[in-house]
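Please predict the structure of the following assembly.
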Amino acid sequence: MSDSAVQESGQTCERNLWIGIDLGGTKMFAAVCDADFEILGRKRKSTKGHQGAEAGVDRVIQTIQQAIEDADVSLDRVAGIGFAAPGPLDLIDGIILETPNLGWRDVPICKLLKKEFGCPVTLLNDVDAGVYGECQFGVAKDAASVVGLFPGTGIGGGFVRNGDILSGSRYSCFEVGHIRVHPDGPLCGCGRRGCLEAVASRLAIASACAKAAYRGQAPKLKEIAGTDLSDIRSGALKQAIKEGDSVVEQIVRDAARQLGTAAGSIVNLLHPDIILLGGGLVEALPELYVKEVQNAANDQIMPSFKKSFRVCASELGDFAAIKGAAAWAKKKQDEQPA
Amino acid sequence: MSDSAVQESGQTCERNLWIGIDLGGTKMFAAVCDADFEILGRKRKSTKGHQGAEAGVDRVIQTIQQAIEDADVSLDRVAGIGFAAPGPLDLIDGIILETPNLGWRDVPICKLLKKEFGCPVTLLNDVDAGVYGECQFGVAKDAASVVGLFPGTGIGGGFVRNGDILSGSRYSCFEVGHIRVHPDGPLCGCGRRGCLEAVASRLAIASACAKAAYRGQAPKLKEIAGTDLSDIRSGALKQAIKEGDSVVEQIVRDAARQLGTAAGSIVNLLHPDIILLGGGLVEALPELYVKEVQNAANDQIMPSFKKSFRVCASELGDFAAIKGAAAWAKKKQDEQPA
């Protein structure tokens, strides 16, 4: 149904390619996939969110165009685009509502891209896309129910159950960074206090580590990245731990434990088969994260639920979200009445 | 499909009645429903959990038998039984796993009742049953997605989405009382610290109010119920507030706010259309609860999600769970392949 045939200069060409694009705080990444979701061409570009939404959408369009060029296919073979963006999103009207890390508000991305590329565009949350990708093609292939927790600048979440992404009637959901874990906790980017991402995101970790570096408690980190939060990224944390900064390791472990306690609360609520961890921090330190989250979650869950779920790290890296977005676009088109 | 005809002494009688039973910490309540889930007969009995599981199951059997007698129908017209119990539950094998408030463990209730009554028995969580009942017959009839929060001795939760109860692959879920809301909070009945029900259940409220009564800060409550937690029930709290115990009102409002903050976290996660409040405490003080929970939830949710959900109180009282359990038993039987 989705692979409609179109007539072009006397030839029939099949619309059976799918584009997935993942809009992140620092970079955007697009890929053209064939009907089996093998990647034919791709393009990465920095997001430059500070330049505003209009310039950002232009960069999105260029990124998609260049991925199509890289795949060496014609646009009229593209059946649809799946667009993964940080939430909250209006899924019915295809609008990016709030992106604290980009500063964009109320961007009608689906309408804009449909006008440019002439094919249906499906919006979904970026972590949902990553979880859906791992469920379709990666580490979570056999699981019925998967909760994704992706600590980054904030903490993104996603929930895929029986092949479907959980969402509200209109809005994307699973804003796991904004569950409250501490009534008097530190101020969060959302303006409230004690949200999970205020205590366990990479930004929270970087902030604590910068303080330690400044004090002289993390000499390796100071050497590698200094005390500017913008430079204290996942790779620098990994290297500092490797070179013996035990304070940095303790700070990361504490944050991973807080994430694990929240994971335990979520297991008590939703009982997924898998807690899937992803994002740059987890990719840099997968063993530390999987172990600390599993242990802390076990400490929080009901005794009956023990051993009923496992914690694992994403294995497709940043391909999970683009392949997931492309596959989701196809699924949504397939579901539409003929 | 579910209404199979059976042959009995030359006559055909239709198996089209459904029994719902709700097992609570203090009482059990069973009803026989017709095909439209109108109640034909019912029976309430105290649970007497302390007498142990074996005696308890005998009381369950008597309660069902007496509800059938009250309905004045023959057993062979009963198509199925829906059994609502506090979780966690093993839904595949039909086992009640842990009931801290009854002290029962690993009770294979479905097998026991099937042997007794000769019809299929479906197990479900009690709050799920209440939410499902309100979705089918009550205040949540038009909602696609409903989260139930029922503060009682503990705090039960349920989640119904698109006509389906959310559960794990094997176990019931939505143990909302055991999400952690305070890292250093008071000890919970589950042995951990800072769980929602350790700070916001009726037991937590009663404990704080007993202290106030003992200190002389709640003179009306002391007159009405004394300082024994077993006597500080929802009705006593309501009356003390009505008669002017402002400390009691403040304690209940604080607990309702904590429940509301958790509700806000859950809206950020799951984005239901309705947060449904139920149980004796909410039935006694519906306006206070709806208002405090709505306000505290609004303080915690993402700005984009505001006005996208409403908080309301259950309207079917303890009929919600028995009708919900009966209707769920029918749904599960209808879904089975012929």
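The two ends of chain A are 7 Å apart (CA to CA). The longest helix of chain A spans residues 246-270.
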